[in-house]
């Protein structure tokens, strides 16, 4: 979502309840990584049928089998696959950074070699 969303021509026509609902639906989809799919029961938990119809009429929701599609969700948000990929990259980078830091602290700074340390092994073969 951009900081211009509240002033968008489609948005200014929404009631307060519909505005709150669409924000809640986007949060739900992002948190559970549904790629913009919103089950009907979840839609009903956060908005009245009138507000849901309002969002459909305004073009924010499209009714599909079993629920709703959040219009252009993947155009503006990362997909579940992209989020997972970024998460794995961060996890790997953090793990490697931590082990390199330990190598520098316990081996390089103390001028010690460890057979179990990949960085010591790499330094020996370099």
TrEMBL record:
It comes from Rothia santali. This is Uncharacterized protein.
């Amino acid at each position: 979502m951009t900081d211009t969303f509240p002033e968008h021509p489609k948005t200014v026509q929404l009631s307060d309840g519909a505005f709150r609902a669409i924000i809640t639906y986007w949060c739900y989809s992002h948190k559970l990584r549904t790629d913009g799919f919103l089950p009907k029961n979840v839609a009903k938990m956060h908005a009245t049928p009138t507000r849901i119809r309002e969002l459909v009429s305004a073009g924010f929701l499209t009714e599909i089998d079993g629920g709703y599609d959040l219009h252009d969700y993947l155009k503006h948000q990362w997909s579940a696959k992209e989020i997972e990929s970024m998460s794995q990259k961060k996890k790997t980078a953090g793990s490697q950074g931590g082990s390199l830091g330990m190598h520098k602290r316990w081996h390089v700074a103390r001028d010690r070699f460890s057979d179990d340390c990949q960085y010591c092994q790499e330094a020996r073969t370099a």
